[in-house]
TrEMBL record:
Homopentamer. This is Flagellar hook-associated protein 2. Belongs to the FliD family. InterPro entries: Flagellin_hook_IN_motif (IPR010810), FliD (IPR040026), FliD_C (IPR010809), FliD_N (IPR003481). Keywords: Bacterial flagellum, Cell projection, Cilium, Coiled coil, Flagellum, Secreted. It is found in: Secreted; Bacterial flagellum. It comes from Peribacillus huizhouensis. It comes from the Bacteria. Residues 9-106 form the Flagellar hook-associated protein 2 N-terminal domain. Signal peptide: none annotated.
Amino acid sequence: MVRVSGLASGMDIDELVKSMMQAARVPMDKLTQKKTYSEWQRDDYRSMNTALLELDTLIREGIGMQKSFIKKTVRVSDPEAISVKNINSTSDFSGTLKVDNLATAATMFSKNKTSVDDQKKTLKDLGLMLDGESQTITILAINKDGGFDTEVQKDENGKDVMVNKPYTLTINSTDTLESVINKINADSGVTVFFDQQTQKFSMTAKNTGDVKTLAEIQLKGDLFTKTMQLDTTSYRAFQSGSGSVGTNASVIYNGLKIERSSNTFTINGAEITLKKETTDPVTFSSTADVDAILDTVTKFVTKYNEVIAKIKDKTGESKYRSFTPLTAEQKKAMTEDEVKLWEEKAKSGTLKNDSTLKSLLTTMRSSLYTSVSGLNGTDSLSKLGITTTSNYLDGGKLTIDEDKLRAAISEDPNAIYNLFMKEDSKKDGSETGEMGLARRLRANLKASMATITEQAGKAGSLNNNFTIGKSLNSLETRISAFEAKLTKLETRYYNQFTAMEKAIQRANSQSASLMQYFS
């Protein structure tokens, strides 16, 4: 569109239209400011939900896990002979252990020098297979439990029977010997090694132990017997002097002689690893790892206090109603520092006195301060030396008497776990008084996070799935409609001024003609 800009009238038409449009844009600016404020509020809600989720996750992975309270310091009289660590024992343990024999793995090696000169060659190039030929090889090796992997098969009468399940591999003439060895080493229960200098192979079971009635390694396939020059079983290799059988570890545990297929095994929730044979018994004992458990509880208290402070700060923020979100035109007239200071005020109070968050503060305090029924002794936080701060303005923050907490941990760390994670008798959350403190707290957090999500959604949520989002969609629609209205209004203003300019031009032209006529 061609616009006439005051050539006839001498007026600044653009400036006049701009001034007239400023007044017309006031309702539009209010809609835009409302949209901006809603986005700020949405983001603050989501930030709060992130903080609540972090607390919930910390509870779940910290005080909500029994393993956090069974951490133990284990003392061993000869750590070079054995090591002991707690796996799942809830009580302290002690004992003696004498190592008579370590568990060993079955081995096999080539009886004779092989014809293999380069394992990078294909089986065809090594003369081991004809072009296009293939064969299937199998390996049955001892597993980590001291037996063999099994599977169900049908016998000749159609009945299900349990049989040993070997590792099976089909090889082709185009496979290199190296690639075959790599597949065996990756997926089977043995490790194969080829020595280039001696041109011999060795095979070792990945797991130690003695299967007793059967050989720990059993092989089928010409690749093993003809190419690698191995016996069909580790027992035959032992008999022929080209290998060894697997043996069990033999130990005397608290006076009782026992065997295990592995040098690492678990007794009463404690994992024992044998390192060497001993002539005298090795003693070991455990105590609660007070520092580690104290750290777990301290992290929870610290995070809880952070969330309390954040909720209290956001719900208690001052709301400056005269500081509305700035429009683009307003920002242009201000410096960066002025914009920053203004928006700090404008963003303040988005969650002031929010009912969901204030209710959460109350329920969290109630959940933590109410004792857990059905527990003897440690039934409240105060028994651990954890109490609220003396300053009521802190909003219920917790403080720790470290000496008292250390004493409680040393006495019975599992009792602390029960305080946090005891289930109610019905196991459905209905008997709140019987629930552990952490279970109550997580239920409070879950309910509040769900309510906030309904209000503000979460990252990736579509606007029509939460309350503020629906409001934003409505505002976007109104803003778009108003923008179209303003565009039409601006066009009308320009059309009117253009008509005025043309009328003035015609009047000026007529006046000039008359003047010329009279002159």
